[in-house]
Fold these 2 entries.
Entry 1:
Amino acid sequence: MQLQPGDKAPDFSLKDDEGKTVSTKDFRGSRYVVYFYPKDDTPGCTTEACQFTDNFPAFENLGVPVLGISADDAKSHQAFRKKYNLRVRLLSDPARTAHNAYGAWGERPGRGEGVIRSTFLVGKDGRVEKAWYFVKPDGHALEVLSALAA
């Protein structure tokens, strides 16, 4: 199941790397970006997180928070953020509840079941404005920024 533009973005409440609960309810009336990635401190995931961080001022100027979600725990997220000075909020979804709700877990062609690297731009109305599945990490943050400007 893949989300399409116009679909209601699934609600979630997950803990960040500091143990604070972050909920989609916190962003009602605002646009936000949610991206799902396989694992902290791996090559593709690092590229993606660092590029979101490099472009963080542009997201901030637009008032658009960026949330990265993986199954990693808070300790792993803290080490990842510190090592690369990441500015995006990293959320833990060990039960993959949000992954499943967003279609970010499933069959990957030629690679078996696992995390489908995916990103969602959610609008002020709580609906998906744009969904990207099977994302290539390099250059993706700029792709998301372009969609925000459109």
Entry 2:
Amino acid sequence: MKYLLITLVLLLFLNFNKVYSDVLPNDMFSSTEVVELQMTSLQTNSKNNNSGIYQCWLFAHPENKKFTGPFTNFKSMISNTSYKVLLNSLKFKTKLLSKNKKITKFSVDVDAYDNKRYNLTWVLEKTNLNKDCMNCWMTTVVTQPKFIGQLN
């Protein structure tokens, strides 16, 4: 958690689009930090260059990328489907549902730009990508957003 806080503080002082899109998967991030990093990236996505969507894509598990395809497909999937409620959301809240050594599941409530609240299940698994990522948490599944209520 402290690494995520340090990263977020740095973003306040540096060029957001360049720095945030350069956060790569590595062993120092917990599963909680990864889902919060991805959600914060989507919440603060820049429409100019889609840096938030790109940052989220960097933490997509290789098995997930087999289904979502390259970044251009991923960007379209987020921007043009029910997942668009994740972009520029008002706030989000994560809740741990289950965790073992290899898989973690979260419930994520999102207060979207359309003044509605949605819920998703976010699943992360550990993987080996490269020498810096021999045991990294990466996203394997995100369920379709379910409408759970109107915001007051």
